[in-house]
Amino acid sequence: MKNLSKKNVMVRLSFWLILGFAFTAVSSCQSKSSKEKEMVKLWSDGPFIKYEHNPILQPTAGFELKSVYNPAVMVENGKFSMLYRAEGEDTGAGAIGLAFSEDGINFERYANNPVIVGEYEYEKGGVEDPRIVKFGDTYYLTYAGAGDRTAGNICLATSTDLINWDKKGEILQPRSGAWNSHQIKAGAIVPEKINGQYVMYFQGEMEPWKTRVGIAYSDDLIHWHEPLREPIMRPRAGYFDSKGTEPGAAVVLEEGILLIYNGWNEELVHKTGWVLFSKEKPTEILARCEEPILESTQDWEGHSLFTESIVEHQGTWYLHYGIMDKVIGVATYRGSITGSKEKP
Description:
- It contains no helices and 23 strands.
- The protein is mainly β.
- It starts with 15 loop residues before the first strand and ends with a strand.
């Protein structure tokens, strides 16, 4: 593995998770507690560092002639598997390609790409932005289908080898007159059962770019329902996510459900942040970042970094992300995701 640059601009951090005996309203964005709070430091040893030779994947030809971006990554038996969105010849809004790596940086494409393309009415305009989890021997891939009926939907496909996919169709759609009536997408399934159910965080909007985060549940990973009429996380005035938020990927920690998400402001500058939800009540926010954990720091990165996965391998955490909807980069952090507890 090549060395990571020590000259990269460090991403500003405010990784203090407020944990305690808090009661928080479903729609709250900050923790409230009547008792003494404990502090748990997240990524306590330092920030994510961008790989000095980014981008790690660039467009080539055919189905990915124009762009490759917004990857979903898994690590199994020491091997990284990446599913990424690509745009090129006859792809419409996108097709999904597959690549493999031994180190999370140098990826080799699957020879018979793409592995998922638009086929049905609900996705005939293209397939976008994969997110992946695995339960048992089966991979579950959510993606957005560009179809006729709505501006967006959440679709699901399953596989046992990452190559051959069984499409289950649309699993969640916008609801007329609701907070997500214009569009939904970005289904991030929590990789463990929570209170006996499967949980998925997703993005919804009533107006373009004014997005929020909602929650859905399932008993079988195939049939999903949204029980609430309101989102569970909203943008915050004065923060990097003041206009919109979109789920990236979830990790289950001892402290709660850590959701990596993307946020943007009125200028549509996209940055990556985190929020911690309760495992007992996955609509309840325990803590939320004050600053982004990943953002553009070089001119060629433009104004948009977009993260849809977080994985850990041999003590190193990897964020693989899209850059300006054109190429793919990676940033890493080595160390425990949580540090020692201390009093405020």
